[in-house]
Amino acid sequence: MSGFFIAYIYFLIKKMPFKPFTDYLLLEKKYSPHTVAAYTKDLERFFDFITNQYELGSLLSVNYSMVRSWIVYLVDTGISNSSINRKISSLKTYYKFLLKTSQISETPLAKHRALKVAKKVQIPFSQTEVEDVLELFDQANDFETLRDKLIVELFYSTGMRRAELIGLRLSDVSEIQKTIKVLGKRNKERIIPLLPSVLTTIAKYKIFREALPGLGASNTLLLTSKGNPIYETLVYRVITRYFSETSLKVKKSPHILRHSFATHLLNQGAELNAVKELLGHASLASTQVYTHNSIDTLKQVYKNAHPRNSK
Fold first, then answer.
1. Which of 71, 115, 191, 303 has the fewest CB neighbours in a 10 Å radius?
2. Are the C-beta atoms of 247 and 277 separated by less than 8 Å?
3. Is 258 designated active site?
4. Active-site residue, from 31, 95, 205, 290
5. Is position 106 within any domain?
6. Is residue 107 part of a domain?
7. What one-character DSSP code corresponds to residue 115?
């Protein structure tokens, strides 16, 4: 995320009536400006609805019946249950803040239950599919191809998120320690080991990177050919472009590659807690969504190894 974009979000936030809340999210909870902007947008739309429907000038006197009517309105507009749950999560966080600051005595969302959401089964790339993609880079000998190879390798060897990859700096890579420092959600840092093959790609890429015209003193690791930081749609295009050549799966994205990283580690016997730390998850529950594929592997091992299976 560019410094200009962050500054612009801060400017918008200061102009909004929820500034004490947004300051709390930014300064105390360490939420990203992007997340804070999304929360504020949800609150503004809820406030508009409450003002129009109930002629309230403040959210302090809202009751759950009013919240429920907003939910019904959102359902009628065709918004998915998962999107509605996210918006209500913004409200819950806001009212928890009001409770904490003694502006209200109880939250109108105390008894709210999230709408049911159908579980989406995300199918990871197979190890063969990933290896086939990496083989496409065997003859990589130019800046963009080496950069794209590094993007794929970093995703698959570290499991980092797309935003984390974009924010990587040259100084985050330690060739001596063979590690990379990743700045995750809420500015939490984690150190991830790097495979020798990835370090080799980084070394080759840096040679071409340093030859970019007008590079200046940029510390950003991954750049465009014009010397600018890479951006989200570019990363997405890289993954879809190369995996479209080796995979017939409908969903191809950086997150699926992160999903593949976790699933393959678990299939090879990695401990769930270790994978949790590598992924930068706050809770074990977030990591457990990747265990369904490793369960299939365990079933196969059980089937092949149990002495009574043939009886």
1. 303
2. no
3. yes
4. 290
5. no
6. no
7. P
Say whether 290 is catalytic. yes
Q: Is 177 left (phi over 0), alpha (psi -120 to 50) or beta?
A: alpha
Q: For residue 86, which amino acid is it? A: R
Count the domains in the chain: 2
Tell me whether residue 241 is one of the annotated catalytic residues: no
Choose, from 87, 147, 149, 161, the residue flagged as catalytic: 161
Q: Does the annotation count 147 as an active-site position? A: no
In a domain, 307, yes or no: no
Q: Which residue has the tokens 């599919």?
A: 129
Identity of residue 100: K
Q: Which of 185, 204, 206, 249 is catalytic?
A: 185
| Stretch (H or E) spanning 192 | strand 189-193
CB-based burial of residue 264 (10 Å sphere; 0-12 exposed, 13-18 middle, 19+ buried)? buried
CB 262 within 8 A of CB 275: yes
User: Residue 189 is encoded by which pair of tokens?
Assistant: 């840092």
Range of the domain at 60: 3-100
Q: What is the full per-residue pLDDT of the chain (311 aa) written as tens digits?
A: 455 555 545 445 444 568 889 889 988 888 888 888 899 999 999 998 998 899 888 889 999 999 999 999 999 999 999 899 999 999 999 999 999 999 999 999 998 999 988 766 678 899 999 999 999 998 889 999 999 999 999 999 999 999 999 999 999 999 999 999 999 887 889 999 999 999 999 999 999 999 998 787 889 999 999 999 999 999 999 999 999 999 888 788 999 999 999 989 988 888 888 889 999 888 777 777 666 555 555 556 556 665 556 55
Query: Do the beta carbons of residue 194 and residue 184 sit within 8 Å?
Result: no
What DSSP designation does 116 have?
P
Structure tokens at 22: 């947004």
Calpha distance 127→301 (Å, rounded) = 18
- In the residue annotation, 34 being an active-site residue is answered as no
Active-site residue, selected from the candidate residues 162, 258, 264, 276: 258
169 is catalytic: no
Q: Do 43 and 160 have their domain in common?
A: no
Whether residue 120 lies inside any domain: the answer is no
pTM above 0.70, yes or no: no
